[in-house]
Amino acid sequence: MASALPRLLVTRRLPKAVEARLAKAYQAQFNADDQPMSEADILAGAADKDALLITPMDKSFATGIIARLPPSIKIVATFSVGHEHVDIAAARLRNIAVTNTPDVLTDATADIALLLILGAARGASWGERMVRDDRWTSWSPTAPLGFDVTGRRLGILGMGRIGQAVAKRAKGFDMELHYYNRRPVAAELAHGARYHKKLDDMLPFCDFLSINCASTPETRGLVNDGVIAGLPDGAIIVNTARGDIVDDDALIAALNSGKLAAAGLDVFRNEPRIDPRYRGLDNVFLLPHLGSATRDTRIAMGMRAVDNLDAFFAGRKPGDLLT
Ligand code: DGY
Predict the structure, then answer these.
(1) 80 C-alpha to center of ligand 1: Å?
(2) For ligand 1, atom 1, which residue shows the shortest CA distance?
(3) Following CA atoms 91, 51, 162, 184 in sequence, which dihedral angle do they give, to the nearest 10 degrees?
(4) What are the residue ranges spanned by the domains of the chain?
(5) What is the CATH number of domain 7-104+295-313?
(6) Is the pLDDT of residue 3 over 90?
(7) Residues within 6 Å of ligand 1 by CB
């Protein structure tokens, strides 16, 4: 007799505990070798399924695959808080539910934002390479030197959950906090940060600018020449949100000219095929999209995605429904 369990395609390997839970409650097809699936692979795998569990690397969900999914697909759960890789309007048209995994990665991602602030300012990247490459000849009072973090001014672009968690941590470094958001947040969530109604108004206060907004049509390319020009000379930009919020040409030119002292980047346009010019810059601290990459956080993200699927197939509204 055919199993009554919902049929699910999982496009990447997930933490063991998550796959074990899925294996009990679903007829799940896992991606055993963890190779990113092409659009054709996903369509082939989706052919006999009710649900898809995808990741932010499955970009085809923003570029037309949804219209071609078989009618059996009822829900797409993304293993991420960001959902710019899913065309929500197209999913609505097809009556396909879409869910994400907010909250559970807030702290881990904010921790990485602070790592980028410290790493970019204090030269973690060049310092580490100096030691590894055996180029460290002597402690010196004058070189190489980084920049202070404690007591400096931090502007947060996007005061959602992660921006708020960055503010909370930055307070521990006695930073003077500012934020730009479409709307002010409740005082207890701002951690003392001063609200700016316009991004341009906040820029002169940003010794550090932390990018924490979602990637949307309004924010893509937002951090461009004009925004960088509005920052104080020697400012530092860090990005844990999405690479496409930054105009790479503008950022690289400002890092080369010294307009910006440094940058810390965890996310990139077209990652993992990043703009190769970043690799040649000594004043950037680069990480491979590690925002949510802790064992516990990745398990929590997976469990949250499964909670959403379970709710949906039990006839309840998933907690993180986006459609
Ligand atoms: C997300 O969930 O959107 C993150 O970028 C993954 O780390």
Answers:
(1) 5
(2) 80
(3) 30
(4) 7-104+295-313, 106-286
(5) 3.40.50.720
(6) no
(7) 56, 80-82, 105, 291-292
